[in-house]
Design goal:
Distance between the termini: 29 Å
Strand order of the largest sheet: 2-1-3
Radius of gyration: 17 Å
Number of domains: 1
Helix content: 40-55%
Structural class: mainly alpha
Shape: elongated
């Protein structure tokens, strides 16, 4: 989630990873409007915020990719280091408790880890 300030014309004026006094709303980090904002910015701080937001999105993509590789038999869950297994299990349990609110994929496509 990104915190934003819009101008009177509805255009983004400021985008931050943390709430700020002048903010007028929020947008998802991976939405087209946010990605365009970051891609067109020449401000180093804004580019860093964009990179941080995309890092968080990529964590989920990689987690889902690992699940797909396991489901298709390309790798086994036990092939992963113990620390990775623990982290993936913990994330899956947390996501299950939250009901998949942060899902990039639909619930039907959600990979399952052992």
């Amino acid at each position: 989630m990104l915190y934003i300030e819009r101008g009177p014309d509805g255009q983004l004026r400021r985008v931050e990873a943390e709430p700020f006094d002048e903010m007028t709303g929020t947008i998802p980090a991976g939405c087209d409007e946010a990605l365009s904002w970051f891609a067109n910015s020449e401000d180093e701080h804004t580019q860093r915020v964009g990179l941080q937001a995309s890092d968080l999105e990529m964590v989920r993509v990689l987690e889902d990719l690992i699940g797909v590789l396991i489901d298709r038999g390309v790798i086994r869950f036990t092939d992963l280091p113990e620390a990775a297994q623990r982290k993936l299990r913990a994330r899956q349990q947390t996501r299950a408790r939250l009901g998949g609110l942060c899902a990039l994929l639909s619930d039907d496509d959600e990979p399952r880890l052992p």
